[in-house]
Write a structure and sequence with these properties.
The protein is α/β, with parallel strands linked by helices. It has 2 domains: 119 residues, Rossmann fold (3-Layer(aba) Sandwich); 138 residues, Cytidine Deaminase, domain 2 (3-Layer(aba) Sandwich). The chain is built from 9 helices and 13 strands. The chain has a 6-stranded mixed sheet, sandwiched between helices. It is globular. The protein starts with 6 loop residues before the first strand and ends in a 5-residue tail after the last strand.
Length: 272
């Protein structure tokens, strides 16, 4: 039985790292965020300036597999505190920091692989969190196919620029596009849209999909109860995601919120 004894969780904020840890009890949590779990035996506090320490710790703990989970803010490096390893990759890393998430995360994943570690996706070790095709709950509105098609066209155009994973469409009108600020901020922004700019206060959708060529091993889109609640509060009717390519956290709670608010959740392949 796989108890995670050779598994490292490179963890950020959110529920996903905890779900992995609860499933793989002997996995070691290497955290770059503030955490209340520092008293745990299998916890290593990490700093962005000390990547050499991270790789040394992985080796000392006989780690072979690495999973990235949770949100980590783009780091601001204290250049006076860099260890030799971080200093050696700093020129390339600095260049990646001003590019999109996919470029940055691909570079980081490459560093792990160069050091002999296998990157695995959270979906590989927690496959029950992946949505299968079809309606999770709810009923679509009349113009859903038109709105999905437009959203997919926009996401396809934006994808090469590594900008975002989501767009909000309401009766053919674009209300917002996800950028560096993330999903929650997008939905809060949409909620503030003046009523005279909206054709239907309860007819839009949020479409969230991976970017073209996005490496899902270390960067799979995640939704959860907060996503559903914020989408509803933004006046939307539903959420559309790609099947097999999006993680859903606390699915029962998501469905509960959706059903209580006549909100649908649909997993459907892109139309483009």
């Amino acid at each position: 039985m796989d108890d995670g004894s050779d598994l490292a969780i490179i963890s950020g904020s959110g529920k996903l790292p905890l779900l992995i840890k609860n499933t793989y009890k002997n996995a070691i949590n290497f955290s770059f965020t503030e955490s209340e779990k520092e008293t745990e035996n299998k916890f290593v506090k990490c700093e962005f300036e000390k990547l050499g320490f991270l790789f040394d710790s992985l080796k000392q703990n006989r780690i072979r597999r690495v999973v990235m989970a949770g949100a980590i803010n783009r780091p601001r490096f204290d250049k006076s505190n860099l260890d030799d390893y971080t200093l050696s990759i700093m020129p390339k890393l600095t260049a990646k920091l001003v590019q999109g998430d996919n470029e940055l995360l691909s570079f980081i994943a490459d560093e792990f692989e160069k050091n002999g570690y296998q990157i695995i996706g959270a979906s590989e070790i927690l496959p029950n969190l992946i949505l299968k095709p079809g309606f999770v709950c709810g009923t679509p509105y009349e113009f859903i196919k038109r709105d999905i098609k437009k959203a997919d066209k926009i996401l396809k155009l934006l994808s090469p620029e590594d900008i975002g994973q989501g767009v909000v469409i309401e009766n053919g009108l674009v209300l917002g596009i996800e950028t560096l600020q993330g999903t929650n901020e997008l939905l809060k922004f949409v909620a503030k849209t003046a009523s005279h700019l909206r054709l239907d206060s309860r007819g839009g959708i949020f479409v969230k999909r991976p970017k073209v060529n996005q490496n899902l091993r270390f960067d799979m889109p995640v939704i959860g109860p907060e996503t559903i609640q914020l989408a509803f509060e933004a006046g939307l009717r539903g959420l559309v995601v790609s099947p097999h390519s999006v993680i859903i956290l606390d699915k029962e709670k998501c469905v509960q919120i959706a059903e209580a608010n006549n909100f649908f959740i649909l997993a459907e392949e892109t139309t483009n």
